[in-house]
């Protein structure tokens, strides 16, 4: 099985290699990359001359493409120059339907943002495990329940990978869409390894721990002497 | 089991998602976040204009909330500009009792600081393992034994996660408190992944290895030629 | 088995230790290191005074040597100061045939660049798994199929490591070469651990997440407030 | 077993906690810390005003103490501002014999430097595995075989940890020493996690991949367009 899956994977890699070799892109690549990054372009509307780096990990398959990239948390100031996480980061999954051989329709893309805990579910999956998440963009608002998104990850019967599916039911637009992207064990291992790297960053813990001189880390070291008492302090 | 646990987890995520979506906070969130960071606010009393970053990973459950964040080590100078770890870092666990739906009492919070080795115990836990730690804040002082803290991590019978419990017995105040927070496999995986990331930082090893130009790392490279002989040197 | 393999490994280490102790190099070491880095020297032709760092992980065995090092992605600017990955990074494997005891012929070296997904295959290998990759440098050009490269990783029958083999069939030069390097479990674990570290970097994700002040990361945090809506935005 | 070992571990932690709580050090701590860092102090003789950071992970047990810390590689320049690894880094193990309760004799310390591949052996160990390494400081010199060092790691019969032993036979001084330090599963997990973090750094790969603006990483991105052809280039 393993061996077979690897052959399938490597053969797939040999054919065009669109999956991970942008230097041999599908002939619509610039357009579809742009599409993948519309989210980011959108964001840049809010600031001038911002540097954004677009480095999605993309899996192009027959019926749809899946692109994954981390979104960093935002911080807000409070007190005497302190920062707290304002909005958690996430792993943003973008699905595009295929509309021809290696052609994907960015107008019909759908997104799903995995929270830190949902990333934890993905990281803890074994070869036979499934997981499923439900999001409601209007949760806690008057439109609650009008749009429902459901992401599921289900193993291939032969253990050679997973099916990653997104369903979006929109009662306002009266639309229902479904995307399914089969990912190999190799592709899923890239996702797990990259998500494991990204998790502390989307949690904002890299800010706590990377000792860039003159920033919090070096300053923290000055204040920590108080720390241990605080385990006991009320 | 796995599959079931994931459904439970994702459903739980769907309900309010207070666990990991601060942008849909519980309605007492600002107050309870403040409470979680009193430790840090305390510390800032000792320095002016310090940048502190607050990015706890918080799990809000029915009877209590658990918040986890790394505390960096402190360094002191000695010799000709050398630094040594003055106080090890730790993973600080903060428990808050619930006093209503998604309302937590920060006045009654209790803290428990995991050492590097205790983090190692947590990292090595399999789905059926338990671990337990005992701390005495007054250890080696005349009050030894007056306050005793006991943290235990026990697996759910169905393997779907763990119960994390803190007991605090204070013979001086004549109080005894107990907090129990059930965590899912997904939440525990976040804790393990984040603790694995944080461990070298609370040990101070990021200072040894991150080559910030002009600091120790680049200087180390000048002195290391002596090093190998030193394996044999007395 | 495990124990035996470790003895074999440690004994092998004890003999000259060329594998991982450059300070006791084979007597042709400077020349063979130069050879390993010709790729890089080539590159430096295109820029003056570039800093390049050469830190390959090299395994010197009886019939061939294998050297592995990451190659970082390239970025190109677009829009208002945005960056996108222009060419993915890779793990570059370089094989050199032995032409005498601890002497390797850098004129006859062959290279094989593992993509992110191929690195994922390597990372997901268990002690009994194999994997195989096929590359065609002329793919999609008129010379397609003229040069074919085949990298295979096969486990030792006793589970004590793997054979890493590269075959290169060149129909233009009418040449066929094959290199086989046996690697111990310890050496393969170094490769896996180092590839796991390198993967986010060859994907360009370190650029997304390392918060170097004043660069994208800190700017991203300004624009992210728009982000979450975008999960739902069309 | 697991559970038992954890109790033993946590109880051990509760008693003085010298292992990982320097803020409750053994009463000889400053002296024994100094001893652990003589290697480093030695090195500083060769440069003025160097910043060194001392952050060993130390395990203090009844008959001996073991202290572990990474040693970074050294680089030398060549060509037009290029750097190559001059001497690989290592994980330095320092053993000190006990000469009383929590008192350790730094005069009698012995060191053993694990290479990257030896770290790979340690990282790949399962709960029942052993490994053993042999070093000869005088290897390839006229004194070859005069001093022999043997490091062994053997599992506890109950799977609750490992015995780490160093034997040093010195035919010149006519001495033979042996140190054995029992480490718990928790302590070994700290070693594995910290070694896994340190491995890319002792290999020098952090220099290749950390994109400090204006250094190699950003420059590399300019030259990499040549790269892929080089997979095929002779």
- Based on the structure, what is the oligomeric state of the protein chains? homotetramer
What's the overall geometry of chain A?
Answer: globular
Measured by DSSP, the beta-strand proportion of chain A falls in 25-35%
Average the pLDDT over all residues of chain A and give the rounded result.
74
Protein name (chains A, B, C, D): WHY domain class transcription factor
GO molecular function (chains A, B, C, D): single-stranded DNA binding
Family (chains A, B, C, D): Belongs to the Whirly family.
Keywords (chains A, B, C, D): Transit peptide
Task: Give an overview in words.
Four copies of one chain form a homotetramer. The first copy, chain A, is α+β, with helices and mostly antiparallel strands and 234 residues long. Chain A folds into two domains: 31 residues, no CATH class; 164 residues, Transcriptional Coactivator Pc4, Chain A (Transcriptional Co-activator pc4, Chain A). Chain A is 31% helix and 31% strand. Chain A is built from eight helices and eleven strands. The first copy, chain A, has a four-stranded antiparallel β-sheet with strand order 2-3-6-7. In chain A, helix 4 runs antiparallel to helix 5. Chain A is globular, with a radius of gyration of 21 Å. The N terminus of chain A is likely disordered. Chains in contact: A-B, A-C, B-D, C-D. At the B-D interface, strand 5, helix 4, strand 8, helix 5 and helix 6 of B face helix 1, helix 3, strand 1, strand 3 and strand 7 of D.
């Amino acid at each position: 099985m393993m061996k077979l899956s690897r052959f399938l994977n490597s053969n797939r890699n040999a054919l065009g290699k669109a999956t991970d070799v942008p230097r041999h892109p599908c002939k619509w690549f610039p357009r579809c990359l742009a599409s993948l990054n519309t989210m980011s372009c959108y964001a840049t509307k809010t600031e001038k001359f911002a540097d954004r780096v677009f480095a999605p990990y993309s899996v192009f398959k027959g019926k749809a493409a899946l692109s994954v990239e981390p979104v960093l948390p935002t911080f807000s100031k409070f007190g005497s120059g302190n920062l707290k996480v304002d909005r958690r980061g996430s792993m943003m999954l973008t699905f595009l339907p295929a509309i021809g051989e290696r052609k994907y329709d960015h107008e019909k893309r759908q997104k799903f943002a995995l929270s830190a805990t949902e990333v934890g579910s993905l990281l803890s999956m074994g070869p036979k495990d499934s997981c499923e998440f439900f999001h409601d963009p209007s949760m806690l608002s008057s439109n609650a329940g009008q749009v429902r998104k459901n992401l599921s990850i289900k193993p291939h019967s032969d253990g050679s990978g997973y099916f990653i599916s997104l369903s979006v039911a929109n009662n306002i637009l009266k639309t229902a869409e479904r995307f399914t992207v089969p990912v190999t064990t190799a592709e899923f291992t890239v996702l797990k390894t990259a998500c494991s790297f990204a998790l502390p960053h989307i949690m904002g813990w890299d800010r706590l721990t990377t000792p860039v001189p003159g920033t919090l880390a070096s300053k923290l070291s000055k204040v920590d002497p108080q720390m241990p008492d605080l385990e006991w302090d009320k």
